[in-house]
Amino acid sequence: MIQNNLLFLQEKIQELRSALFFNTSNAVLKLPTSVVQAMKVDEAGQVWFFVNRPEQYLHEFDREFPARLNFFRKGKPFYLHMTGKAFIVTDPEELNDVINVTEEVRQKAMNHFVLIKFKMMHAEYYDRSEPANTVMQKVKTSFGKWLLGEKPAYRPYSLQPSF
Question: Could you tell me the CA-to-CA distances from 98 to 5, 25, 139, 154 in Å, in that order?
Fold first, then answer.
């Protein structure tokens, strides 16, 4: 079940690509809210992206912290909200594993940006599809929702194994 959810979320993230990144920790010094572009979603449910490097020394920031990603794209009938844990990645080898780029681009990225690895813990999918047009379609949709107890506009996903 978790694998099916992950495949669905990987597909939707790749389709949307753009997200608002929020550092939700209570730390005094934290990465600012920023618009990010997802580069990769790996098999472990981690979203990889860059944020602008802050002016402060990177070692002054917490290496891991709670965070939120809100994925959206104009014209798409859905969006995603995710919560989880973000990790600041400083190891150049991890950067090599994420993207295949030249050494020049890699150095520029490490000097001007910070690589973030976001581990998804909870995801919510919202569908804003067009409602049914005919009365019969509306009745059919309403009956299906009532019968199945389904909320088609909201699908929560928990990506942690349950014990």
Answer: 22, 25, 48, 31
How does pLDDT run across 91-119, given as a tens digit for each residue?
777 777 666 666 776 776 777 888 899 99
- Cα dihedral 149/151/154/160 (nearest 10): 10
Are the CB atoms for 19 and 38 separated by under 8 Å?
yes
Angle at 18 between CA 36 and CA 131, to 5 degrees: 155
Residue 159 DSSP class = -
Query: Quick one: residue 159, left, alpha or beta (phi over 0 = left, psi -120 to 50 = alpha)?
Result: alpha
**What is the end-to-end Cα distance of the chain in Å, rounded?**
14
Residue of higher predicted confidence among 102 and 149: 102
Return the residue matching tokens 């920031």.
Answer: 61
User: For the whole model, what pTM was predicted?
Assistant: 0.74
The helix/strand/coil state of 5 is helix
| Alpha helix segments (H runs only) across the chain | 2-16, 92-98, 103-112, 135-148
